[in-house]
Fold these 2 entries.
Entry 1:
Amino acid sequence: MLTDINGSLDKYKFKDGTYTGVAYGYGPGLTVEIKVNENKVSDIKIVKHNEEGKKHYQRPMAMIPNEIIKNQSLEVDAVSGATYTSNGIVNAVKEALQQAIIK
């Protein structure tokens, strides 16, 4: 059974490593690669996506990973006009963290 990871990440224990998560944004296949180091998400890269309209997906792809890392939280504000992409990034990070969590 998967743990529902949400909110602040400091309440969970994670294994160091690199993990991949995939979620549905505006389109399918939004793929992220995250790095966990010393129980912190230290890097998030969007490695593949099928989002449409660069003017819509560009801002959340720049902002959401940085906000997750800065706040060590999945509770970040979606970018106005790009809610699906914003939520897709968060959900892909959440899926990647499922692989890293120590239960």
Entry 2:
Amino acid sequence: MTTQRVLLRGRLVLSDRIIQDGVLVIEGEEITRVIDADEPTQLSQDDRSIVASVTGSDKTYLPGLVDVHCHGGGGESFPNAVTEEQAMTAVLEHRRHGTTSLVASCVTACADDLRARAATLAALSQAGELAGIHFEGPFVSHERCGAQDPAHIIDPDADLTRELLDICGGHCLSMTVAQEKPGAYGPDSVAEALIDGGAIPSWGHTDSGAVPAREAIQYSLERHRDSGSVRATASTITHLFNGMRPLHHRDTGPIGEFLAAAARNHTIVEVICDGIHVDPSLVRDVYEIAGRDQTVFVTDAMAAAGMADGDYVLGPQEVTVLDGVARLTQGGAIAGGTAHLLDCVRVAVQQAQIPLVDAVYMASVQGAKILGDTSIGRLCEGVRADIVEVDGDLRPVRVWRRGRPVD
């Protein structure tokens, strides 16, 4: 059977630069060549023939985006999905908008619900529809629980963690843990269980001061180095600023330590760059302090992503969405996001004035790095043909995943 060749010509956003006139050669599920048509003297005869065979265009192509923190979309919620079909509704909502690799995030719930969600999401991960699973809780802070249900928050339990990892069958990427809680890090801790089990701790939903924050990151770094894990980082920070004690010059909280650790290349900070969770000017500050290699854009999206305002659920919590902002119906805390990851790239470029190359990098390469997957997140030879065509306003026009158009 002959492998079909597809040629895409236009502006190509690579990891380190933009090719103003380039050609992507796709054969089967893989990008086999990236040609810079602006450098004709550098091209082989075969490359020149390929360039001559496809008409130039003003189209812009990005790598498929990678979201490592997402609770749902399209009206369905991963924490509430009891069937694979329900979960796939959320996956496809984001996939059609350019997120070709998606980690499904659960929320704090009872242990039986977490076990059930882990089994459903692991099956989709095994099938290649999801990139992994993230547990946001249940070992988080009551004081900084945000939209996490305080009724189901418990102290860190390494045995439960190992049980969930076993159900996930190697597909658990991370778990959000409040580092100040006993058993969060150290011997026989949740962090130890996660790292030894091929996952990573993500510090967040925390009322911690500076000392536990620094110690938890250092412990993760040392344990990760000894583990041989395929994951590319020792720990992440769950949506920096949101769900944690704010920075104050006498009551410092954890934020300063998280940023300092990112600047030391010891952790990667998540930022919800949707223009709602974090002011775009502060997103720019994080980018300038930590750099693109230690910052990852996430959506924290819930069921209302891509949907109209109205009433939704996020795990056991009821959520009301008004003017695109999701809040707990009781209490009013922000309850996840309603954006797609490409929306976050647009906010970064248009409002935070972050260069397009770096904004795309933080929404693609960085997620792939956390997953430890070098086959996604870039436009280069030898990687999976996950590609997003966008218009001049950075809105999706067409999406390819594994070389096939996404309907």
